[in-house]
Model the fold of this input.
Amino acid sequence: MTDAPETPARHSHWAVIGLFLIAAGGVLVLARSFLMPLILAFLLSLTFSPVRRFLKRRGLPDGVSASIIVLALVSVCGVALIGLTGPVQDYIEDGPNIMRDVEYKLRGLNDLVAKVSDATEKVDELTDTESKTTKLSVDTGPGMFTQVVLSLPYVAAQGALTLVMLFFLIASGDMFYEKIVAVSPTFKDKRRAIEIVYDIERKISRYFLTITGINAGLGGAVGLALWALGMPNPVLFGVLAFGFNFIPFIGALVGVALAFAIGIVSFNTVGQAGLVAAVYFLLTSIEGQLVTPFAVGRSLNLNPVAVFVAVAFWGWAWSVVGMFVAVPVLIIIRALAEQVEKLYPLGVFLSGRGDDELGHTPPE
Done:
């Protein structure tokens, strides 16, 4: 028996899906100033929902719980900013000098690159290859510290909008869940809708709370290790390791590169800086390959290729914030796919190795 030929209706169906995805991507990029704080607030509200319910069982209204959670977030962020502003400002202002020191101490590598470049040019000359040299005029523009200062009002406004949205989402309690139940036509649909939203809430909350604890442990380990190796400002690097590790793959590489660059400036030899970078990389590798897979379990295990593509796309669309939300968005999509029959193949694709059945049969 041969498969039925593709019908025009089927082709139009996939065309509509493709146009929808393109339009959705365009909206994400064009409306990111509005959508970023909204999505962040939504993810944080899911994360803190168990805390809100715990406080509600203790007799606290949702509005009071929302105030406590938002004030706690503001306090933690404020203390971190106050404590780290000095070292970060010093590194930013001294950025050109740091780069000169790095270039000077890596001169041996530069000489090797120059020799390879000279050899390539000679080969081109022997094969009569014409080369054209284009002179570029580089406008350095404002310094890095000036750019950071100019971006602060925008970042502060986005942060304030996120916190306000978070307050209202937490203070509303289970209102949105009640609305979902109210608009579902049948009892089966109501039950399925509640199962989906609670499953998403549970997985997002577990992911963020688990990853935050793991990253805190990693930050402490990195800070202690770099302190033992004689690195300046080990607390700063511990906090950076904590923050960077929320971004899969790229965060660890950026942390290793920064540790290596500062190590070159701080130590007498490149080998000592390489040791610092190697220790940082070793700790992040242990966390990524052993600790996190064991802690998050199979239900949150994702296809690493899908994670990398998601981080690349969201990073392109929303920069650092996009890379931060990439994995939670994948978790939400996978949770939906586990409960919706037509999306079940997508859930299988997004799952990690060994999770081809997602732990159950496709939903009816």
